[in-house]
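This follows on from our talk about sequence and fold. Please put the record directly below this note.
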Amino acid sequence: MSEVVEAKPREISPALDFLAGTVAGMAAMAVGYPFDTVKVRFQNPQIATRYRSTLHAFYTIVREERIRGLYRGIAAPLAGAPPLNGLVFSSYRFFMRAQLDNEKDTPTLAQINLAGAASGVLSSLITTPAELVKIHQQSLVRTAGSNIPLRDRDVILHIWRHHGLRGFYRGITATALRDVGYGAYFAAYEGTLRYWPRPHNADPAGEASTLASHSLAALLTAGGMAGVAGWVVTFPFDVVKTRIQSTAAAAPNNPYRNTWSTIVSSYRAEGLGVFFRGLAPTLVRAIPVNMVTFTTFELVVHMFS
């Protein structure tokens, strides 16, 4: 059995955390956005029946809308997601340090989980409007002769004119509940690295960079585990969030008015399985995306350490 190495917290400035998280977010967006488009199409009940499987969804979107269709709506998250990722990483370390009596103490996995959950709730203030615009874009299926506006600007102006500032925060409760999953996300990453065998010459107390004390295989595995853990724990709330944000609150007889009505209505109409619809493409996406995310983050930290 391998020895569990309790690595001391690295002394990284908040600015470096933010920079590394932002660069990692850009890399992750390039890799994962097409999978996210497929996930949203599956979760939207109005168009989900068009696709038989993940591969069929990719094929259909590319055939009907070309590669551009997989990246539709990327402008809004590309403007917000990378710095948001920086905020998540920097606020995660802030909330973790706030729980420690001494900055050099080793946090428990429970403390890491709590810090990650807190950073997720904080990030939902930015995530909610960005994903609302993205989901409106991704849910649009262009047909012959369609004059539906597909630009981010059109969607933003439409929401502002009809619903005001409040309209951009439709679905914030479900988004915050989903983003609590950052607790499991960071705990899985740190836990995997703690149990991963290290080189005999590594000094966990003296390393400022995880890249210097772990192999590339360890970072990739830990990143993949983080992605899976973060989604499996809270995926049902992502389904709920998508359904709320893809419909208008004022629509007559809308069963997706709020978080609770969406849960009840979805369960009654489609059973328990509906809350895991789109999970397959999400997990397929989560593994490579979070491998890239954490490896890029650690690479940037290593370069500036």
Summary: The chain has a mean pLDDT of 85.
